[in-house]
Amino acid sequence: MTSSKENIILSATGISIGYGKGKQQKVIAKNVSIALKKGRLTALVGANGIGKSTLLRTITGIQKPLSGEVLFNHKNIDKYTGKELAQRLSIVLTEGLPPSNLTVYEIVALGRQPYTNWLGALADEDITKVKNALELTQTSHLTHRKYYEISDGQLQKVLIARALAQDTELIILDEPTTHLDLLHKVSLLKLLKKLTHETGKSILYSTHDLDLALQLSDEMIVMTTDSVTQDTPHNLTQNKVLDTIFNDKHIRFDATLGRFKFDQDI
Amino acid sequence: MQRTTQNKVLLISLVVLLGFTFLLNISLGSVSIPFSQVFNSLTGGEVSKTTWEYIIINYRLPKAVMAIIAGMGLSLSGLLMQTLFRNPMAGPFVLGLSSGASLGVAFIILSSGLLPGFLAGVFLSSYGIILASTLGSLLVLLSVLLVAQRLRNTMAILIVGLMFGSFTGAVVNVLTYFSTAQQLQKFTFWAMGNLGGQEWSNIIILAVACTIGIILAAVCIKPLNALLLGERYAKSMGIDFKKVRFIIIISVSLMAGGITAFAGPIAFIGLAVPHMAKLIFKTSDHLVLFWATLLSGAVIVLICDIITQLPGNDLTLPINAVTSIVGAPVVIWLLLRKRKMNYN
């Protein structure tokens, strides 16, 4: 659990995030500090509407922080060109794909775009990376299927394979476990954990599945209305940070049971 | 690997089919000319009657070339728009681009009487018409794009296209009220769509406009593939979305606007042909679809033009009517298929 400077891939210190400019500015969260470490699986949790998506958009360089800067490999994320960033940071989204005839293989191969020529032709190296990505996510058997013929859980893995093919140091996933049943949620998070440990990549994902995140993440970032706290699941439980997530006195985190409890009469 | 070979075979067959329909298109018409004579006049050989050579070189050949340009340009525009709008129902006619072009042309033809002589002359020249038409379609395309960013719904965008159609139709009606019978006739003929009767000089202007459009589209093949996953994924893979969108808009306006300026509004080609290409080639890869839509677009419009001549008859149907008769059922069929194809 070293957190020396070399180990940090992405960091933000005391930034505020939100939308708009000047008087129309809407601050979503202030004084946000996070540090993502190499080879670690980090979960981002918080109630609906707390600003998880805004934080993810900010640290992926889609929108600028209102103040402060996001450092990616110790360099301001705005200073990267689109292609440079695409070779270092990939994303997996919750939203569905637009209608098309894409096969699983084609989707994963699109991940090679930051490396291919102007026509997007795949070189031998690209083909190897695509194959590896399919194998790592155990989706090789789906290679020639159309993406709309496979299940939600399988599609989620394919989209992760696409991010792997993009061969980036950091992968950021927006609520990857939504729409999945418990079994698939667990297998997906186990896959993410395996990937961080086997490939040395850093992965950050947002989720509403707190109990699973507590069990399967190396670190967690907890967003509440007042603060953003980053720590290991163990420490977060000890420090009663999890009680503050829902800002409601009827819901508490039971450390001994390892899950949330709510009063019956609410 | 198997697929790529299959695609190559299909593309080569399309090239052969294009050559065949091109020759067939030229050999059919109200005056029957033996095929050997058609071939001779195209290759510069001996032709037994000079009128035959005249008909082929100055009437049939320009019309066939127009059909190829229109087919290629409109179909490719449709493909670009379908990917850009993430909408299977997008196409230059459906989204009102042709109506926008009509409005531009209507302004020029119908209001030329209100302008001083020399200005009217400038406006009525081929350049004036192509400019007005391109601007008209660009205007509509930008408006639809604006609406599409707010409403990500297939139906809503279609309805907006329909509204643009009615709106421009109404403005054109108002304009016709103030115009002379001669201007009206000129506009009506234009609005029915006609591939024939073009001077070679006009065809060259249009060919240049469409070539630029096609080159711009070719530059966008890789970003278009990225856009299949949606805007956010495309950006995360290093695509400069704003730049790509700008190039696509210019390309579509040049092709759809230019073709509409000369040949009049031609319905459904832009919508139906990309779908036919996607069905035949069973792929979404724009590198394949680029060639597939260009070739099948040209073939389809050549065939539609053959139908307009009603072989063995002196009458010529408007091209727009034929493409609508073929195209409208395709649209209905697409809507019915919607659920199966995961269109949402």
TrEMBL record, chain A:
<dbReference type="GO" id="GO:0005524">
    <property type="term" value="F:ATP binding"/>
</dbReference>
<dbReference type="InterPro" id="IPR051535">
    <property type="entry name" value="Siderophore_ABC-ATPase"/>
</dbReference>
<dbReference type="InterPro" id="IPR003593">
    <property type="entry name" value="AAA+_ATPase"/>
</dbReference>
<keyword id="KW-0547">Nucleotide-binding</keyword>
<keyword id="KW-1003">Cell membrane</keyword>
<keyword id="KW-0067">ATP-binding</keyword>
<feature type="domain" description="ABC transporter">
    <location>
        <begin position="10"/>
        <end position="250"/>
    </location>
</feature>
<keyword id="KW-0408">Iron</keyword>
<dbReference type="InterPro" id="IPR003439">
    <property type="entry name" value="ABC_transporter-like_ATP-bd"/>
</dbReference>
<keyword id="KW-0406">Ion transport</keyword>
<keyword id="KW-0410">Iron transport</keyword>
<dbReference type="InterPro" id="IPR027417">
    <property type="entry name" value="P-loop_NTPase"/>
</dbReference>
<keyword id="KW-0472">Membrane</keyword>
<protein>
    <submittedName>
        <fullName>ABC transporter ATP-binding protein</fullName>
    </submittedName>
</protein>
<keyword id="KW-0813">Transport</keyword>
<dbReference type="Pfam" id="PF00005">
    <property type="entry name" value="ABC_tran"/>
</dbReference>
